[in-house]
Write a structure and sequence with these properties.
Layout lengths: L1 H11 L6 E4 L8 E5 H13 L10 E5 L3 E3 L4 E4 L2 E7 L2 E3 L9 E14 L3 E3 L19 E9 L2 E3 L2 E3 L6 E6 L2 E8 L9 E16 L12 E18 L4 E4 L8 E14 L5 E4 L6 E14 L4 E4 L12 E14 L7 E4 L6 E12 L5 E3 L1 E4 L8
Parallel strand pairs: 1-3, 2-4, 3-6, 4-7, 5-8, 6-8, 7-9, 8-10, 8-11, 9-12, 10-13, 11-14, 12-14, 13-15, 14-15, 15-16, 16-18, 17-19, 18-20, 19-21, 20-22, 21-23, 22-24, 23-25, 24-26
The chain binds 2-acetamido-2-deoxy-beta-D-glucopyranose (NAG) (3 copies).
Pfam family, one: Glyco_hydro_28
GO molecular function: polygalacturonase activity; rhamnogalacturonan alpha-L-rhamnopyranosyl-(1->4)-alpha-D-galactopyranosyluronide lyase activity
GO cellular component, one term: extracellular region
Length: about 375
């Protein structure tokens, strides 16, 4: 009877059962000094790639508990259907010539990157005293480049020298994880572009701002069609932004974006659409709902965020709604600042349930909409 049950089980099992490819079998040593990079690559090539499965969690590229040093960039090009499972702590050394991205998944499909481990970027060593110019090409942590149906969760990222998580592609999810950085800035949390990506239940915390901080919390880049960000906490950041689009971008296309349930505290800004005056393209159907603010500027659409200020009027921003914005602003800046092109004004900018105390008077330039005092109707 038992043998018949086993025979039956063998028939219904998928061709690949659960396989663990531990980096310790491919040269890694949990001594916080041996480079983890080559072991990741070797375990991937020798153990992960030969497995055929369509279920990512069937094949683990496994970094067990322990301390590891990652000294070289690792690129998983063409990665499909597996799980980078980090249980240990991965540290970046300070190597002045280190650049690029430490972990890149490229042209990938159905990859899960999860914890419970952590990556410690030691970014402060690359920006001593806030000097961002010392190593302008300092390393970034994680990049999904041209990837679809991937997921990153439950891994904690500390203090990247430069950006933490960049996701480019479609139908990817980042959730239930934290990014904790020191106080320098220009180390964005999540930068996302592509279609139908989703970021939820995450927090991004910078150290206390000493200088003006440009650490974006959860930011949407162009091109994007379909993005949802919800249940997000941002502290000491520059908020949840769209853009910037780059100084000469003539193909801006961001649409169907929705942020919901976001708390932004002690930050430089709340939500911004950041454009340069010579950007060309479209930003439309953007919804921000359920924001709580503590001392910062809540809503800012700025066609002249940076650049020479010449109004070419070739970026169209329309159908942006802000609802249920509560909390405290800052006396030096308006709660709502709309600074749009004269040739192509911002259209249908709708507000409801805006209750921000302690801010400067709102300011509207070349924008029309409804729901706050002083905005002209369209
Ligand atoms: C591992 O090495 C890194 C880089 O040298 C260092 O910052 C970190 O404190 C070390 N971690 C442990 C647990 O010793
Ligand atoms: C809003 O987000 C916070 C996390 O920032 C979460 O704790 C809370 O449950 C969320 N609220 C709802 C209604 O989902
Ligand atoms: C606007 O975007 C939302 C998602 O945020 C989507 O459900 C809705 O269909 C879009 N509206 C239009 C007119 O495309």
């Amino acid at each position: 009877m038992l043998s018949r049950v086993l025979a039956l089980a063998a028939l219904v099992l998928p061709s690949t059962a659960f396989i663990t490819c531990s980096v310790l079998s491919y040269g890694a040593v949990a001594d916080n000094s041996t480079d983890l990079g080559p072991a990741l690559t070797k375990a991937w090539n020798s153990c992960v790639i030969p497995q055929a499965t369509t279920v990512a969690t069937d094949v683990l590229l496994y970094v067990p508990a322990g301390n590891y040093l990652l000294k070289t960039n690792v690129v998983f090009n063409g990665a499909k259907n597996w799980n980078l499972h980090i249980a240990g702590n991965i540290y970046l050394p300070y190597i002045p010539t280190l650049t690029g991205t430490m972990l890149t998944f490229q042209n990938c499909q159905n990859i899960l990157l999860n914890g419970p481990g952590a990556i410690f970027g030691n970014g402060y060593r690359y920006r001593p005293g806030g000097d961002l110019g010392l190593h302008p090409s300092r390393p970034r942590l994680i990049r999904f480049q041209d990837c679809n149906n991937c997921e990153i969760t439950a891994v904690t990222l500390y203090d990247a020298p430069q950006f933490h998580v960049t996701i480019i592609g479609n139908n990817n999810v980042a959730h239930n994880m934290a990014i904790i950085a020191t106080n320098i800035g220009t180390t964005d949390g999540f930068d996302i572009s592509g279609n139908n990506n989703y970021v939820h239940d995450v927090s991004v915390e910078n150290g206390e701002c000493l200088s003006s901080s440009l650490l974006s919390c959860v930011t949407v880049k162009t091109p994007t069609n379909g993005f949802v960000g919800e249940n997000i906490r941002c502290k000491f950041t520059s908020g949840c932004n769209i853009g910037s689009f780059g100084s000469a971008n003539t193909a801006v296309d961001v649409r169907n974006v929705r942020y919901n349930n976001v708390t932004i505290s002690n930050s430089d800004a709340g939500v911004m659409i950041k454009a340069y005056p010579n950007n060309v393209g479209t930003v439309t159907n953007i919804t921000y709902t359920g924001f709580t603010f503590v001392t910062m500027q809540p809503a800012d659409i700025n066609a002249f965020w940076m650049g020479d200020g010449v109004d070419t009027g070739k970026l169209s921003i329309s159908d942006v709604s802000f609802s249920n914005f509560v909390g405290t602003g800052t006396p030096t800046r308006p709660a709502v600042l709309l600074n749009c092109n004269k040739a192509t004004p911002c259209k249908n900018i709708k507000f409801s349930g805006i209750s921000i105390s302690g801010a400067k008077a709102n300011s509207f330039t070349n924008a029309c909409g409804s729901g706050v005092t002083g905005i002209p109707a369209c």
